Amino acid sequence: MPLRIIIPTALRRLTGDADVVELEAGTVNDVIDRLDERYPGFRSRICDDNGELRRFINIYVGGEDIRFLESLATPVPDGADFSIVPAIAGG
User: How many domains does the chain have?
Assistant: First the structure.
């Protein structure tokens, strides 16, 4: 069953303005790999040079922040909600 990934507005120019992308993946890292294969440059927008999730990007699987799970190795079960949420800074 394909996974539905909700693409935040700030990253939609990479996906041709698609707000939802469907793909098959087993872990969060697989999701990022598939997105980068389909939309080159996607990984560099959400991961740093060490391959870790950027500080200002949050990813939720089933409503849980992956930083409190297994980070990029977090399994993504079929049908789970998957959201990429950039942090918003203000002053």
Answer: 1
pLDDT in tens, the chain (91 residues): 788 999 999 999 999 999 999 999 899 999 999 999 999 999 999 999 999 999 999 999 999 999 999 999 999 998 888 999 998 766 5
CATH of residue 75's domain is 3.10.20.30
Does residue 61 sit within a domain? yes
| Residue at token pair 């049908």 | 79
Tokens 């297994």 sit at which residue? 70
Structure token pair of residue 80? 């789970």
Provide the whole-model pTM: 0.90
Q: Does residue 22 fall inside a structural domain?
A: yes
